[in-house]
Design goal:
By secondary structure, the protein is α/β, with parallel strands linked by helices. The chain has helices at 16-28, 39-49, 59-67, 77-95, 98-102, 136-154, 180-186, 201-212, 238-247, 262-271, 281-289, 375-380, 442-452, and strands spanning 110-111, 115-122, 159-166, 169-177, 220-227, 250-256, 275-277, 296-297, 323-324, 327-329, 336-337, 344-345, 348-350, 357-358, 363-364, 371-372, 392-393, 431-432, 439-440. The chain has 4 domains: 16-91, no CATH class; 112-295, Rossmann fold (3-Layer(aba) Sandwich); 323-377, no CATH class; 388-460, Zinc/RING finger domain, C3HC4 (zinc finger) (Herpes Virus-1, 2-Layer Sandwich), CATH 3.30.40. 31% of the residues lie in helices and 15% in strands. Strand 2 (115-122), helix 6 (136-154) and strand 3 form a beta-alpha-beta unit. The structure holds zinc ion (4 copies). Residues 407, 409-410, 412, 440-441, 443-444 line the site of one zinc ion.
């Protein structure tokens, strides 16, 4: 039986679900276990405790309106602002990881924009546990789909493959593909992935490793494991697998749903990946989504003295790589066979070097091996290298320069001053770019950082 961390709440986790989850537990079964800070909430809930939430799975029904609470004036404005601000803080935490901010802004950060990821899903019997609602399995599938969508949005040049672990075997669920629709389709049918038996870390990792062995050095090789068991059933020594992953430069990250296992931590630490144990649903999602932005390449420190010139930094020299921009065939063109699936189709792309026809970009040409990308994809992967700096919440009315009564981006007037002075929320509804000093409303702030990736004030 997995240990339950339900009555603890992660401080870093800012997602909605985790917040009210704490709320629900303190109502339902938090007999004096709620922390001091929750006392007020717990007291409030006591009256209702008898007639509600006999079963944990019922709790989900109360959640959505538990978070939204009217303020003294009976307005929902404060709650809405709270949610927005929570989103802001989360996106700052996730999309601009802290270690990047700590790196001097002038220092070049290297990120791999051509990524190859194998998503390994635990499909063992322990995934049917209901400690995460509705079950670990359903929650994992739901988050995996959201993860894939977000991942392709942020990494348009990446490719994802999916491997499942069940009945002691690794099972290929989706082949490596750069098309989000194809990956989503492979994990769409839950009946094909019904959990059963024991997981095998070694078999699954070996299978993932095998599918990435041929990749060129300029692309990343990553494995993301979602692991809900406390056992692994391996045919050989898993440490040998670990060693070969280190040798092949495969980065393993793991999100555990049950509890920490030594081998899991070792897998992540030795390969340079991230390891996390999800405490609740919201934290699980946070841990997953932390892996969406491409990992920064750690500069390898050079021995002092040997060529430590002022201009050379610690990064190795950049390599050039060849890419081709394909010609898109119009939908009305005569049908011809594609080289990837051997299907008759009208639409497709022509490889600029060998003129063979492929179905999707980005991909590697099956005939000549050229990497084929579309230029919008390339441009979209650029923003990770130059993230928009987080805007500062303007705390004081006196801080406001004359003249700016409206948001610099959408030109709507800023709201009246509110008494809401929580961390990360501006009482005057203004968020200021540290570079250009322009003020933006909270909606535009979120949009700029999550979607546009470019400040409308300074164009950075
Ligand atoms: Zn094809
Ligand atoms: Zn070609
Ligand atoms: Zn605005
Ligand atoms: Zn700016």
């Amino acid at each position: 039986m997995a240990p339950k961390h339900n009555d603890r709440m992660d401080i870093d986790s800012d997602s909605d679900i985790s917040i009210d989850f704490e709320h629900t537990t303190s109502k339902g079964k938090g007999k004096g276990r709620a922390k001091a800070g929750d006392k007020r909430k717990a007291d409030k809930g006591k009256g209702k405790a008898k007639d509600t939430q006999a079963y944990t799975w019922e709790a989900s029904f109360t959640r959505s309106w538990d978070t939204v609470q009217e303020d003294e004036a009976g307005s929902l404005q404060t709650s809405v602002e709270d949610l927005l601000a929570r989103g802001r803080r989360r996106s700052c935490l996730i999309f601009i990881p802290r270690h990047d901010i700590l790196l001097a802004p002038a220092a070049a950060i290297r990120r791999t924009i051509i990524r190859h990821l194998v998503l390994i899903l635990d499909l063992s019997a322990s995934m049917m546990d209901r400690d995460m609602r509705p079950t670990r399995f359903d929650l994992m599938l739901q988050y995996a789909r959201e993860f894939v969508t977000e991942w392709f949005d942020q990494n348009p040049l990446g490719q994802i493959g999916v491997v499942g672990m069940r009945a002691g075997l690794g099972e290929r669920i989706g082949v490596m593909s750069g098309n989000p629709q194809e990956v989503l389709k492979s994990i769409a049918d839950r009946h094909k992935m019904e959990p059963t038996g024991e997981p095998s870390l070694q078999n699954a990792i070996e299978m993932a490793r095998g599918s990435m062995n041929h990749l060129p050095t300029h692309s990343s090789r990553e494995i993301l494991l979602i692991f809900g068991s406390l056992t692994t059933c391996d045919p050989g020594n898993i440490h040998d697998t670990l060693d070969s992953c280190v040798k092949n430069k495969i980065r393993i990250s793991l999100v555990a749903i049950a509890a920490e296992m030594k081998i899991c931590r070792d897998l992540c630490e030795k390969t340079g990946g991230q390891f996390g144990v999800a405490m609740n649903e919201g934290h699980f999602k946070d841990l997953l989504f932390e892996l969406v932005p491409p990992p920064a390449q750690r500069p390898t420190p050079r021995p002092l003295g040997a060529g430590a010139g002022a201009t050379t930094n610690t990064n190795p020299a950049a390599d050039l790589m060849m890419m081709g921009f394909p010609t898109r065939l119009p939908d009305a063109s005569p049908p011809s066979l594609c080289v990837c699936h051997s299907e008759m189709k009208s639409q497709g792309f022509l490889c600029p070097r060998c003129l063979s026809k492929v179905c999707d970009v980005p991909t590697d040409c099956d005939i000549c091996g050229l990497m084929i990308v579309s230029s919008p994809h390339l441009a979209r992967s650029y923003h990770h290298l130059f993230p928009v700096k987080p805007y500062d919440a303007v705390q004081d009315e006196e801080d406001i320069p004359d003249g700016s009564k409206t948001c610099h981006a959408c030109a709507r007037p800023f709201p009246e001053k509110t008494a809401n002075a929580k961390e990360g929320i501006s009482p005057v509804g203004r968020y200021r770019c540290p570079d250009c000093g322009q003020d933006f409303c909270s909606e535009c702030d979120v949009l700029v950082h999550d979607v546009v990736h470019c400040c409308p004030g300074c164009g950075k």
